[in-house]
Specification:
By secondary structure, this protein is of the alpha/beta class. The protein contains 4 helices and 6 strands, in the order ββββαβαβαα. It has helices at about 50-65, 85-95, 110-115, 130-144; strands spanning about 5-15, 15-25, 30-35, 40, 70-75, 100-105. β2 and β3 (about 30-35) form a beta hairpin. The chain is globular, with a radius of gyration of 15 Å. The mean pLDDT is about 90.
Length: about 140
C-alpha cells in the first residue's frame, strides 16, 4: 500500500465517547481532513456486554466506511488528578480490537509541541470538540 493513501483516524476519548477525526495525504502530499458523517461514538453502558459489542461493531463499521488503516489515541494519565476513568480505558481497548486496523498512541505533551511547532492552520470549520482528535491523526500521519 502506498503511504500517500493511508488514512489515519485520530481519537480523543472523553467520558463515555470517542471523538473521531479522519486525515490523509492527498495526491499533492498535503494533509487533508475528511468529513465522515460519524464524528463520535458513545458507549451507553460499559457494564452491558451488548453495548460493548455494539460499540465495537460501530467502530468496525466506521473503519470500513472510511478505509481507516490506523487509529491514533491521545493518551490519558492512568493515575492522579487528571487520570482517565475506567470507562475511557474500556473504550481504548475496544479501539485496539478493531479488526484490520493498527492502533498507535500519542502523548498530550507530544501533541502540544506538535501543535505549536508544526500546525500552521486547522481545517476550516473544525469543531472544537475534534481539535485533539485532528491533532492526533495529523501527528501520526506526518510522523509516520
Amino acid at each position: 500500500m502506498k503511504e500517500q493513501h493511508m488514512r489515519v483516524c485520530g481519537c480523543e476519548i472523553s467520558a463515555k465517547e470517542v471523538r473521531l477525526a479522519v486525515v490523509h495525504l492527498n495526491d499533492d502530499g498535503n494533509m487533508e481532513m475528511l468529513r465522515p458523517k460519524t464524528t463520535r461514538i458513545e458507549l451507553e453502558d460499559d457494564t452491558s456486554e451488548a453495548d460493548l459489542r455494539s460499540f465495537l461493531a460501530a467502530l468496525h463499521e466506521f473503519s470500513c466506511e472510511n478505509e481507516i488503516d490506523t487509529f491514533v489515541i491521545k493518551t490519558r494519565a492512568k493515575k492522579g488528578r487528571m487520570a482517565g476513568g475506567a470507562v475511557s480505558f474500556k473504550i481504548e481497548t475496544l479501539i485496539q480490537l478493531v479488526e484490520g486496523c493498527h492502533t498507535r498512541f500519542v502523548s498530550p505533551v507530544a501533541l502540544s509541541h506538535f501543535a505549536k511547532k508544526e500546525v500552521e492552520a486547522y481545517p476550516d470549520k473544525l469543531p472544537v470538540y475534534l481539535k485533539n482528535a485532528f491533532l492526533s491523526g495529523a501527528f501520526a500521519l506526518t510522523r509516520g
